[in-house]
Amino acid sequence: MVATIKVGKIAAATGTTINVESGHVITQPGSVIQVVNAQYATETSTSSGTYSDTGLTATITPKFATSKVLVQINQNGIYKTADASGNLVNVKVFRDSTELGFVANGAAYTATAVRNNIGTCSYVKLDNPATTNAVTYKTQFAANGVNGYVQTNNIASDITLMEIAQ
What we know:
Order of helices and strands: EEEEEEEEEEEEEE
Distance between the termini: 17 Å
Number of helices: 0
């Protein structure tokens, strides 16, 4: 089997030796090029049905426009108060202003006016930002008829971004 590799910039090639200039990379499809990790541990609340930032965010600048970004999120401390029946908390993921999906859809829903602490909801997606410009991934949340919280009691949520060569 012959592996195809991407070379950032070749300085010289002789026989079976390739010299790569400093600051450039050799990658094989599927290999991890870089990893970015961030945590946010400040309790954040909302009583609005309009989405607002949870505080959890991370930025990655892909080295190749063909790379994928593996997004892994653990949104911790999701909680709702006992304000009304039918209340819930939603958490979404965004790449810049593009919505990618839900971390939690209808979290803490009880159909009754009781409080509920979900704890952790996780999210994994292999995203295709198709750029070498910096991209920011973040979570936002909204509450329906309730006071909703994330990072309750200042428990840390985390986000990990991995650039994967294609």
